[in-house]
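Protein modeling request. Please complete all fields; requests missing the sequence field cannot be processed.
Requester role: graduate student
Desired output: 3D structure, token encoding
Chains: 1
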Amino acid sequence: MSVFHINTGELRKMIPEIRFGDEVYISGTVYTARDAAHKRIRQALETNSALPFELDGACIYYAGPTPEHGGRPIGSCGPTTSSRMDVFTPLLMDNGLCAMIGKGPRSKEVVDSIVKHKGIYFCAIGGAGALAAMSVKSLEVIAFEELGCESVKRLEVEEFPVLCAIDSFGGNIFDR
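Delivered output (176 residues):
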């Protein structure tokens, strides 16, 4: 197992080096999106409407952060169950999404899409949202504000701890 410290701007270049089980510390821009936001992103893609952020090379964190707390830009921001986004993921990857952060296993269709597009899936620590929030340096709501905690947010993170769960070759910690 290896340890990587990477910036989201280098994700696409670094993905082939990362294998399932590797420890990764992410810095840079990460977007939050859960079920309701994914549905709207899919609608935007299907109608050629404007997207809330550029999908090409993006990293989405399946989280619904709570409001800021204690002088920090964010409250708790633990991962949500990734399989709920499986119906949307292949389309987003077809449009450039390269990385996802969540918790739990993914469907065969998502694993196939990760391999096809040379993407990656990371798992964050479930139940440790307050710990994850310590890596968030800033937060900006960028789309679907009416969805509250499920709005799309741009996070700037520093050394956000994740584990590579599914690598770009199909290596999968959930198959062990």
